[in-house]
Amino acid sequence: MTTQPHRVRTRFAPSPTGFIHLGNIRSALYPWAYARHHGGDFILRIEDTDTERSSEEAVQVILQAMDWLGLDYDEGPFYQMQRMPRYREVLDQLRQSGMVYPCYMSTAELDALREQQLAAKQKPRYDGTWRPEPGKVLPTIPEGVQPVWRFKTPTTGVVAWHDFVKGRVEIRNEELDDLVVARPDGTPTYNFCVVVDDIDMQITDVIRGDDHVNNTPRQLHIFQALGAKPPRYAHLPTVLNEQGEKLSKRNGAKSVLQYRDEGYLPDAVVNYLARLGWSHGDAEIFSRAQFLEWFDLDHLGSSPAQFDEAKLRWVNAHYIKHTPAEELAALVRPLLDKDGIAHQTPDLAAVCALLHDRAQTLPELAQQTLLFYRPTAPDAAALEQHLGAQGKAAAADFLAQLTALHDWSREAISAALKSVLKQHGLKMPQLAMPVRLMVTGREQTPAVDAVLALLGRDTVVQRLEKYLG
Known about the structure:
The protein is elongated and about 110 Å long. It is 47% helix and 11% strand. Among the domains are: 97-182, Glutamyl-tRNA Synthetase, domain 3; 331-373, no CATH class; 380-468, Arc Repressor Mutant, subunit A (Orthogonal Bundle), CATH 1.10.10. By secondary structure, the protein is mainly alpha-helical. α8 packs across α10 and α14 packs across α16. ATP binds at residue 249. Its main location: cytoplasm. Monomer.
């Protein structure tokens, strides 16, 4: 297990530019779990500097998704757009130390430079035209042009870090050009803001997607220029969809909240997501408490994980089966209310207890419960096939025994069933199937004695008399 000599502080820093899917929320789950495992702090930061694409609606979706999954944060949410004065203050420090410089190269000039480099089969990059160097004569400053500000990237040596997923990562500085850290209007750029935030928020560990790997050397240079110790990094491999493509909005990913609306349980989603890139031996099903006890950075996977909705449904079915009946009833009741079934008799918790191992989602469970609350007529051909003269005589005797029962219980009903079967020389399906059809209208239900016990004497007798006269 990874040891920590200091208080762990992690963060989730989403951009509110659309709905948040399972691949995104995994980048919240792991740093949340790591902070909780070590008794540290988990910070929520909204990186909303892309003002054209960011929206308050997307922020609310992020907050609702985290709340549904129980990913509570200790500080935040902090919004980058509200921290602009702080970014400008730090940018001024870098100007004074000579670590950034104004660049007046226009977009058209940059495009032309890029085309030349591509034609020469070179890596497209800024060529340092406006970078001040001893003895270098800079071009004449064009009139009326507001410059961008670029960071003076070291031109020799390497930038390296130990990544908890990728191992040692090393990049030669000569492969990097000078990063734009502020736009012409003075607005700081993403990589610069991230570093200032991580310093101010005292982030010790950054656990994020590997689409940020290319940003890390840039950010490490800025940490160094500001004399700050960088956090430790773990870059998570991509989550793939079922077709092997990157899980994304364009490739069919669904919003996290859609899984809530489709009847998945938050603990099931957390359990499934935890296994999409991390493992604890062969454990497939584990509680949230176990996950937090076990989670570390040493067992993060290095290969992309593939999302499998069938597996998620299987995990969800397990959690439904092991959720207390009263809790299940509280989750199913709004679905029945929506379906126009406002008063549930028999007791919904008892019904859920009987049916909980027959559904993979809450709507499936709600649909299963309808056999108790919304009777349907049996298929005439099926009833004729299963009833017959012998079956009808046995069912009539069974009805008589039910009517005479003093104790309406599953055990008493089961005893009556066995008595009639023995009397008529029948096997269980020969009586249970026609009774099931007459009472529920369905060919498949839980054990017929359990169903009849829950439905109650009056309902059962009334429905059987309808067909047996």
